[in-house]
Amino acid sequence: MRCLLIQKTAAQLNKKLIPLLLEAINLNLHLLQIYNMKQLIECVPNFSEGIDLEVIKAITDEIESVDGVKLLDVDPGKATNRTVVTFVGTPNEVVDAAFKAIKKASELIEMSSHSGEHPRMGATDVCPLIPISNITMEETVKYAEKLGERVGSELNIPIYLYESAARNEERKNLANIRSGEYEGFFQKISLPEWAPDYGPSEFNKSAGATAIGARDFLVAYNVNLNTTSVRRANAVAFDIREKGRVKREGSPITGKIVRDEKGEPLRVPGKLKSVKAIGWFIEEYGIAQISMNLTDIKVTQLHTAFEAVRESANKRGMRVTGSELVGLVPKKVLIDAGKYFLEKQERSVGISDEEIIKIAVKSLGLDELSEFDPKKKVIEYLLSEDDLRPLVKKDLISFANETASESPAPGGGSIAAYVGALGASLGTMVANLSAHKRGWDDQWHFFSQKAQEGQKLKDKLLYLVDEDTKAFNKIIDAIRLPKSTGQEKKARIKALNDATKYAIQIPYEIMETAFKSYDLLRTMTDKGNPASISDGGVGALCTHTAIYGAYLNVIINCNDFDDQQFVSATIQKADDLLSRSKKIHEEILEKTIQATYPKK
């Protein structure tokens, strides 16, 4: 960052540059409004149509017609004749989009002629709202009630509230509401205890009934078996699901049901908490599956469910051949799975998220039935802020060309951050190589932990590459503020001071973050794979370059700032970091040279 240069030359900037910068700023603000909004909820309606793509498109078009929501995923299933749709947005807009989709589904889907493998009771079978960001479950329930009341009154569809929105214990469980399915609801709805929460107490023959609720994040997950037997698949499902199976005397299949004093069947609980499961046969694939809902992934993780199914299937003479995710998952679900399988292999988990997810996909067999693209299945990737990180998404040639152009950004701060990321990456590489070194198997966990530390530092420094350029944009934005009136001048001065302070803080943060890499690099030089010691030395050089480069930006930007107390404290800390960096990187280099210099 070079604030003196920026202020003196701002008036001479190329006329084409300013509109581009303003356009970028406006784009950033637009993206922030969409993805970093005050409150964010997810909606995952399930529609009883999985074959007619035109019908599905007409429904999703209604969702996409609402500003403030983003359609994330459309997952149709032919065998189930059902489509799971996922979208996110601000609460009121999500309610509007859900209503329009339910309305369109009621117009296009005829339930009286519907059939499919999955239990169902309506054209829109279920429509849960899920709190994602800055919103409580209690608030989300209110929006579910708002949607339910509107659908019931305006579309004459019976509505049942479930999960956290349920008004009694019996209706919390979706399976209880849907029991009897579409065909059984003509009689069921007439029972006083099954009067709908909203809408008519008369079954809608064409659209059926809909369950609307508020719930925590749920993972819909199917595990494939090498069998066509639904009965055997169900046996596995009963083994692992929380509610287990009905308790019987003697034979678990034909024995007499054991009942309590009230005559209710006793149950033998299954292995996994917060898991619902059934077995079914999927004609499209020609195999049986265990279809699961993981209702609390903090309690039972994806790989835990997979392993439980695998163990039960093996005991029953079957084999798991792969699995299938329905809808979207948070990235952490696949990261945790990938790390689990890597640790089972005693391999380092200090690798990139992309590599960890690749291990998860292969270990779980998520690509057995069809291609699995994490970019289309992971929520964070679909809500990616890549547009807000334009520099680190460039290839090496484009990044170098952008730096070499006549634009003053990216400048020294961004380059310092990137060089620091390379230094951390080299230390991480040595840790990973050491974790896999033949004969060092007893040390793999130590080096894996070090590699994880390096990955975090690398990711933070890559983030700071673009953040330094954003600091530049803040200054340009402040410079262009109007200054005709006294009030405007005050606002402009404040904005410029705030931007300059930020332009000091970011390169100092680069210094601090890069400095943390020395612990990793020194450890790898002392204990890492001897064949890679020179890489540790290059990493130390990169780290010192990053710290020195960021230091220069701290100093020059402090020249433009009037808060002398802040400037003095920052320069003192920066001087100390630079002095310590000189000493440490020289020690590492000396050790590297001693180890690598040819013996005479």
Q: How does the SSE layout of this entry go?
A:
Elements lengths: L2 H7 L7 H19 L4 E4 L2 E2 L5 H12 L4 E9 L4 E8 L1 H18 L15 E10 L3 H19 L3 E5 L10 H5 L2 H8 L21 E5 L4 E7 L4 H11 L4 E2 L20 E2 L6 E8 L4 E8 L7 H14 L4 E7 L4 H14 L8 H12 L9 H4 L1 H4 L13 H9 L7 H24 L8 H36 L6 H30 L1 H11 L5 H26 L5 H33 L4
Parallel strand pairs: 5-7, 6-7
Antiparallel strand pairs: 1-4, 1-5, 2-4, 2-5, 3-4, 8-12, 8-13, 9-10, 11-12
Helix pairs in contact: 3-4, 4-5, 8-9, 10-11, 15-16, 15-17, 15-18, 15-19, 16-17, 17-19, 17-20, 18-19, 18-20, 19-20
Distance between the termini: 47 Å
Domain module tally = 3
Please state the overall shape, judged from the principal axes of the Cα atoms.
globular
Radius of gyration, in angstroms, nearest whole number: 30 Å
Unreliable segments (pLDDT under 50, ≥5 consecutive)?
1-37
State the helicity in percent bands: 40-55%
| Alpha plus pi helix count | 20
CATH superfamily of the largest domain: Formiminotetrahydrofolate cyclodeaminase monomer, up-and-down helical bundle
By CATH, the architecture of the largest domain is named Up-down Bundle
Extended strand count: 13
Helix/strand/pairing class, anyone? alpha+beta
